[in-house]
Structures are given as structure tokens and as C-alpha cells.
């Protein structure tokens, strides 16, 4: 049965901009956010897409005192959530039952790794260690705004934010809440930068998704949140819909802890399930915002899954990780917002840095921004370690 | 070389958590990946770390590992020629 | 549609129980030593077990012994089975282990890093038993029986789900706890209700 869920607000912060307008401009002008590391204190010189704001700047924008303990993941999330709430004109005064769902893995870890040894040595900086948990991070964001009766943190690696949509939709459909703010937030930490590096899946150059010579991913950071509500509540409060969440699919690849199966079974099942729930056929999808990390493994696996779902002539495909980097737990919502911006402004984002066709794959990603595109239905993929694969379908109203 | 091979087997068993394998179970010429010990891609990455940590050999590329990790004898041969520790 | 708990198991205080009956216990061992002892006692024969971190070992063991003796055990493809787990400390136990490898002696361990995500435990269960259905992992203060019942019920209503592994898998600093239920449509005599879930979890 198709979902009856509408999106009435968007907010985004990433390496390609703070807010929807800056993000749209970067996408249309092929301006990638991948570059030298500026904020993270690391010895490594690897291309990453950091949000171009210090924590001091973010606190100023949010009216938070400099001395207050708020970690980078939470700050980015607060900025994005504020934008979404404003666009949706969402009252937080208890008129509606509200949920806040934040997908994250890192939580407050970027502070823990900074202050861990101080904490061990002198029992100082406790407040930063206490703010470490994913759940604590989510609560901090929710409490900044107030008014939420339900708060949760799905934590499934790179599909976390996408899975937040599934939880939000379920909460609305069961009537547990009226409106759900869903999304994810993640900042780059030394912990996962080193972790990905030791798995040998980082590219020392800007990533090139779906390119034959691709050598890995670049990490990114950011946050994006969206306001979901049912038609009934939306009509009742006369909110303006931006698009519809028509369907979702989640499946397990059941192949390996970190690698994807050669035939992309989990991705295939997730995409099919999302399209089926939307009561659509594969031919109805106008654009796929791919997971497209730029690793040899993912792009091959995802390409095979796309061919299995759509045949040899699939819809237009691009990976916007060539702009934002791989924002890990936040990627599902960051790429959802990018997809919806593309839908609203009638363009398809380019797949940057592509030079050479993948030898065994008959389709080529979109190489340049395509304007004047009427995108009725968009499919967005987010695949996490552990084989947790999620696909979302957004539809124009 | 015999000493290195014996040491290498002990290190591999420890680092890769091969709890139910003893050094005697590992044939010096048997493939480490695929059949033989049946190691996988994450094990290959751990062996790369082992090479650097214990022998000071830095491998930049997982593909280099394919040749070097063919068998215990291959590994021991490479280490004896390139070790810096 | 009536959802039932056709089987349940738990690991708590070095004691493994199935459907409320103790199957194996050993209070002399540490919590993590107990996991290996349970693995050997049940003769699971899956060497990859030893590569897993303690959280994955806990969840994997509980799920394996939950499915043992049922039609779901083994590598037949299960497209309509889901996995829904939660815990309090996410992957913190392994996060600390990984952090040690990027300390003063800098040799980040890829095999440890792989497990610094709470949902890898679902991946391990799915890999062995070929489970391809919907799966998700939540982090919460404590086991929330109301949320679990509502969420899982909704998934069964909306999807072609026929069965699911549902519960709580927690491991941090030698505190080890697992509570898993095998939930099926119309099968079994124990109803999948909040009160019953609460009672079984506490027992």
C-alpha cells in the first residue's frame, strides 16, 4: 500500500553549503565541497568535504554560548533542523505530537577523542565524555527545540538517516505521532577517518563514482532533516507540501560485514521494495540518486543491482558523493534533500570526476547538470556496512 | 627462515583470531586465501598491518598483498628480503 | 493478523535459557569467556565466530540458538524474515578497543574497525542464515517493550514479513545481556503483546 506521507520542510548543512539555497547553487554550478581538511586535527592529508564552519561560528548562528558543551554533530543537526522547522512553519507548542529521529554513528565522539586522555588523567572534561553517546547527541538536538514526545536514534551505519524515514513513516501511519522530523547528522572524526583508511577504501584524490579507475571514497560530514506528516495533519494545519515520500524498502545483503555482494542482492531487494510500495513500475523512476561511494566494490555491486531492477537502459543515475563526500550516517537524509531540491528546481545533479566508462556496465552516469528536467519520481539509495540497504522514493505532487 | 616461518604462523593465528588452528595445521605452501586457510579480505588488511607493525614493511596497495600472501613460504620470503625491523 | 512468539531465549549473568529453561550456565567464567564456552558447548562449528567482536558474538550466539531446531536454521534463503534489535551502548565496547589501536602506538586495526557499528551483529546473523528481510538497529536507554511491539507489528502489517528475530543485544565492559524472540504470524501459543514481552524479558 502506498504511503500517505508528505514532506513539508527541509534543512541541510554539508560541504557544499549551509542551507538549501547554497546547496542548490553548488549543485547547479558543479561546485564540489571536497578539498583539504581544515577543521579536524589530524595528521592525514586526505581529501574530505567538511562543513565550512567552525563550532564557534555554528554556536553564534544558533545563539549558543561558546562555553556550552555542544558537539559538532549536534551543532550541524541543529542548524539543519531549524531550517526544516522554519520552512514547514511547524509549531513546537504541543499542538501536535512530534517525533525527532536522528540517524548517527559518531554522536559526540569527535569531542571524546579530543578529551579522552584529559578525562582519564584528571577526571576533567566530564561533560564532553557524557555527551558521547549517539542517543545523548540526539536528545541534545531535540531539547534545543523542545516539544518532542518521541525521540530515537537508528544506528545502522551509512543507512541510518534513510532508516530514520522508515521509522518516522511508521510512527505517523500508526498514529503514535502526528509529525516526524527525520534525518541524520555526522561529523568527521579521527576514529572513522583512520578506520576507513585501514580498510583501504579511501581515495587520496577526489572520488570518481562509477568510473572504471575509481579507487575509493572521500569522507564528508553534514546534517539534513526533513519534516514528514500525513495528508490529514498537513491539510488540517494548511502546511505546504514539497513532495511525497511514496515508498521505502530495506533489505539485508547478507554477504559480508563491509563489502557488498557481487550481484547487489540487498540493493536489488531494497530498490524493488521501495518501488513496489510506491505502487510504481521501474520505468516510472526518472532519476536515481545512487549510493555511489566511488569504491570499486560498491559501484560495481550497485550497478549490477540497478541493471537487475531496471534493465540495460535504466533511468538517469548520478552520485552526489562527488560533491558532498560520503557523509556516512547522514548520507540518507543529505541525499534525500539534494534529490528533493533537484525535483523542485527541475535539474539532475552531475556525477563529477567521471572519465572512463565501467567496462562491464552498459549505462553511464549523468556527466553534466541537466536542466529543465521534470522529475516525477526519484529513487535514493543508502547502503550501510553490515549489509543494511535502504531505498527511498520521493514523488512530485 | 624456519624460525621466521614458525613465528609468522603464531602471529597470524593470533592476529586473525584463528582460535581452532595450530601452527602444525598450517601447510607452508598451502594457499592462505580462498581454499587452504580460507582467509578473507579483512584478514588480508590485517596482514598488511602485521607486516608494518612487526616487520616495518609498508604496503600501500591491497593488490600487492595478493602475491605476497599466497602462502606462508611466500610471505616469509618477502619479509626476509624487505624487513626493516 | 495475530503475531506470536514461537520461541525465545536469553543470555544473562552467564546463563543461557531457551523458553525459560536453563540450557547452559557457568558462573566461574567472565562474561566474554562464557560466550566461547557456550559456543563450544552447543557445538556450533562456525570458525568465523572467533573473528567477531563481543557484541556480535553475543547476538550471533543468541540468534543461532534461537533458530536452532526451527525450520529457519541454516542457509535456505529467507526473504521474508526481518531482524530488529536494540541496545544501550551501541558498539562502544569495540569502539574503545579500536581507539587503543590509534593511540600512541598507531596501527589501526581493520578487523576491529569493522565491528565499530552496532548493526554488524545483524549482518553476521544474516550472513550465516541467509536472511534478506528488513533489518534495523536502535539505540535506546533501556529495552522498550512498547516500542518493540508497535514497531515490529507495523512492519508485519505493511510488508510481506512472515517472521522476525526481535530483541535486545547489549555488551559493554563484561556486562553481557541478550533477549531474543522469534516472532511469527499465527504460530505458537504466546501472543506478541507488550505485557508478555515485558514479562519474558524480566524473567
Quick overview of this protein structure:
The complex is a heterotrimer of chains A (397), B (85) and C (203). Chain A has 397 residues and is α/β, with parallel strands linked by helices. Chain A folds into 2 domains: 5-236, Thiolase/Chalcone synthase (Peroxisomal Thiolase, Chain A, domain 1, 3-Layer(aba) Sandwich); 245-395, Peroxisomal Thiolase, Chain A, domain 1 (3-Layer(aba) Sandwich), CATH 3.40.47.10.
Task: Estimate the helix proportion of chain B, in percent.
Answer: 55-70%
The strand count of chain A comes to 11
Distance between the termini of chain B: 15 Å
Question: How would you spell out the order of helices and strands of chain B?
Answer: HHHH
Q: Give the overall form of chain B.
A: globular
Low-confidence stretches of chain B: none
Q: How many distinct beta strands of chain B?
A: 0
* Quaternary structure type: heterotrimer
- By CATH reckoning, the class of the largest domain in chain A would read Alpha Beta
Helix content of chain A: 25-40%
Query: Do you know the CATH topology of chain B?
Result: Non-ribosomal Peptide Synthetase Peptidyl Carrier Protein, Chain A
Global morphology of chain A: globular
Amino acid at each position: 500500500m502506498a504511503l500517505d506521507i508528505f514532506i513539508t520542510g527541509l534543512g541541510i548543512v554539508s560541504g557544499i553549503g549551509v542551507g538549501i539555497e547554497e546547496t542548490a547553487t553548488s549543485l547547479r554550478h558543479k561546485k564540489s565541497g571536497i578539498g583539504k581538511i581544515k577543521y579536524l586535527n589530524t595528521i592525514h592529508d586526505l581529501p574530505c568535504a567538511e562543513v565550512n564552519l567552525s563550532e564557534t561560528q555554528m554556536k553564534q548562528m544558533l545563539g549558543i554560548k561558546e562555553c556550552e558543551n555542544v558537539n559538532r554533530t549536534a551543532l550541524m543537526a541543529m542548524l539543519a533542523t531549524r531550517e526544516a522547522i522554519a520552512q514547514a512553519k511547524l509549531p513546537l507548542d504541543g499542538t501536535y505530537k512530534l517525533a525527532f529521529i536522528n540517524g548517527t554513528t559518531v554522536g559526540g565522539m569527535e569531542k571524546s577523542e579530543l578529551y579522552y586522555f584529559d578525562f582519564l588523567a584528571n577526571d576533567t572534561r566530564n561533560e564532553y565524555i557524557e555527551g558521547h553517546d549517539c542517543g545523548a547527541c540526539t536528545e541534545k538536538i531535540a531539547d534545543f527545540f523542545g516539544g518532542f514526545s518521541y525521540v530515537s536514534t537508528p544506528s545502522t551505519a551509512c543507512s541510518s538517516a534513510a532508516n530514520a524515514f522508515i521509522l518516522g513513516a511508521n510512527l505517523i501511519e500508526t498514529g503514535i505521532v502526528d509529525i516526524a522530523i527525520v534525518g541524520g547528522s555526522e561529523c568527521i572524526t579521527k576514529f572513522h577517518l583512520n578506520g576507513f583508511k585501514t580498510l583501504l577504501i579511501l581515495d587520496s584524490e577526489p572520488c570518481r563514482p562509477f568510473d572504471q579507475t575509481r579507487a575509493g571514497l572521500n569522507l564528508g560530514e553534514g546534517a539534513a532533516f526533513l519534516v514528514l506528516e500525513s495528508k490529514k495533519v498537513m491539510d488540517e494545519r494548511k502546511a505546504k507540501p514539497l513532495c511525497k515520500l511514496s515508498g521505502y524498502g530495506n533489505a539485508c545483503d547478507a554477504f559480508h560485514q563491509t563489502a557488498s555482494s557481487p550481484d547487489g542482492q540487498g540493493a536489488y531487494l531494497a530498490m524493488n521494495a521501495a518501488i513496489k510500495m510506491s505502487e510504481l513500475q521501474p520505468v516510472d523512476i526518472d532519476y536515481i540518486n545512487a549510493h555511489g561511494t566511488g569504491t570499486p566494490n560498491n559501484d560495481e555491486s550497485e550497478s549490477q543491482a540497478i541493471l537487475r531492477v531496471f534493465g540495460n537502459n535504466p533511468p538517469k543515475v548520478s552520485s552526489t558523493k562527488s560533491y558532498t563526500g560520503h557523509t556516512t550516517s547522514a548520507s540518507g537524509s543529505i541525499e534525500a534533500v539534494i534529490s528533493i531540491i533537484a525535483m523542485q528546481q527541475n535539474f539532475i545533479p552531475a556525477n563529477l570526476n567521471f572519465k572512463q566508462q565501467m567496462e562491464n556496465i552498459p549505462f553511464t552516469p549523468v556527466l553534466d547538470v541537466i536542466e529543465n528536467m521534470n522529475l516525477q519520481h526519484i529513487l535514493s539509495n543508502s547502503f550501510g556496512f553490515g549489509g543494511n540497504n535502504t531505498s527511498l522514493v520521493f514523488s512530485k505532487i | 627462515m624456519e624460525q621466521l616461518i614458525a613465528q609468522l604462523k603464531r602471529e597470524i593465528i593470533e592476529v586473525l583470531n584463528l582460535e581452532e588452528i595450530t601452527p602444525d595445521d598450517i601447510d607452508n605452501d598451502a594457499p592462505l586465501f580462498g581454499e587452504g586457510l580460507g582467509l578473507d579480505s579483512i584478514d588480508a588488511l590485517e596482514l598488511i598491518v602485521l607486516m608494518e607493525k612487526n616487520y616495518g614493511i609498508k604496503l600501500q596497495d591491497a593488490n600487492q598483498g595478493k602475491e605476497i600472501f599466497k602462502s606462508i613460504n611466500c610471505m616469509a620470503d618477502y619479509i626476509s628480503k624487505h624487513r626493516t625491523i | 493478523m495475530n503475531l506470536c512468539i514461537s520461541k525465545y531465549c536469553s543470555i544473562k549473568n552467564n546463563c543461557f535459557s531457551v523458553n525459560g529453561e536453563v540450557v547452559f550456565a557457568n558462573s566461574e567464567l567472565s562474561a566474554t569467556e562464557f560466550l566461547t564456552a557456550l559456543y563450544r558447548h552447543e557445538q556450533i562449528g562456525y570458525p568465523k565466530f572467533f573473528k567477531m567482536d563481543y557484541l556480535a558474538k553475543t547476538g550471533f550466539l543468541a540468534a543461532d540458538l534461537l533458530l536452532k531446531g526451527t525450520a529457519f536454521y541454516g542457509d535456505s534463503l529467507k526473504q521474508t524474515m526481518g531482524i530488529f534489535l536494540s541496545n544501550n551502548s551501541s558498539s562502544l565496547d569495540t569502539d574503545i578497543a579500536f581507539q587503543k589501536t590509534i593511540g600512541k602506538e598507531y596501527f589501526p586495526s581493520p578487523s576491529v574497525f569493522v565491528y565499530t557499528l552496532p548493526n554488524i551483529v545483524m549482518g553476521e546473523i544474516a550472513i550465516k542464515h541467509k536472511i534478506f528481510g528488513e533489518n534495523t538497529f536502535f539505540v535506546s536507554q533501556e529495552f522498550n517493550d512498547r516500542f518493540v511491539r508497535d514497531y515490529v507489528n507495523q512492519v508485519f502489517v505493511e510488508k510481506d514479513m512472515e517472521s522476525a528475530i526481535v530483541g535486545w543485544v547489549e555488551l559493554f565492559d563484561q556486562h553481557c545481556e541478550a533477549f531474543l524472540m522469534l516472532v511469527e504470524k499465527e504460530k505458537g501459543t504466546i501472543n506478541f503483546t507488550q505485557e508478555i514481552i515485558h514479562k519474558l524479558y524480566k524473567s
